């Protein structure tokens, strides 16, 4: 258990930052004129990075790029719990923020992109190893 936490410290730290940033009050005066949907891209980016950090921790823990499908399922469950938790906090606790299903969907798209990237790179590294 402690060794798992040791290897997942970057992911844990990033999760704490995501919780903080997603629940900070937004100032209407200082808002940059960005395009519509920018906040969804931020959610996607936060969870893409979180997924990559979780996978990186697992790779370092087992000292191998090999994975089990159960690892992917665990990462999906962990990130879904965090994304859902953020939206629940925004809905019930930090009412100055709005909870949106689209934010949660963006979170899960970021997770999917992170897993897809890992699987794509893992496949490429296996092809290179065989050559």
Description of the molecule:
- It is built from 5 helices and no strands.
- With 131 residues, it is mainly α.
- It has helices at residues 2-7, 9-22, 38-62, 69-92, 101-130.
- The protein has one domain (1-20, 39-129).
- The longest helix has 30 residues, at 101-130.
Quick tags:
131 residues, membrane, 76% helix, transmembrane, VanZ family protein, mainly alpha, transmembrane helix, globular
Name the poorly predicted regions.
Answer: none
Instruction: Give the SSE order as H and E letters.
Output: HHHHH
How much β-strand is present in the residues?
Answer: under 5%
Question: What is the count of distinct domains?
Answer: 1
Calculate the mean pLDDT score and round it: 86
By secondary-structure content and strand pairing, the structural class works out as mainly alpha
Helix content: over 70%
Number of strands: 0
Enumerate how many helices there are, as a single number: 5
What is the distance, rounded to the nearest whole angstrom, between the alpha carbons of the first and last residues?
37 Å
Major sheet details: none
Principal-axis shape equals globular
Protein name: VanZ family protein
Keywords: Membrane, Transmembrane, Transmembrane helix
Gist of the model:
The protein is mainly alpha-helical.
């Amino acid at each position: 258990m402690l060794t798992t936490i040791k290897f997942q410290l970057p992911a844990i730290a990033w999760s704490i930052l995501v919780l903080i940033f997603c629940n900070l009050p937004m100032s209407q005066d200082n808002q940059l004129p960005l395009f519509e949907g920018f906040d969804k891209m931020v959610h996607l980016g936060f969870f893409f990075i979180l997924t990559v950090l979780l996978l990186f921790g697992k790779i370092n823990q087992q000292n191998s790029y090999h994975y089990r499908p159960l690892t992917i399922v665990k990462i999906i469950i962990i990130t879904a719990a965090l994304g859902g938790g953020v939206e629940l906090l925004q809905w019930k606790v930090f009412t100055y923020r709005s909870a949106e299903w689209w934010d949660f969907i963006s979170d899960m798209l970021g997770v999917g992109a992170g897993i897809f990237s890992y699987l794509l790179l893992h496949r490429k590294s296996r092809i290179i190893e065989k050559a």
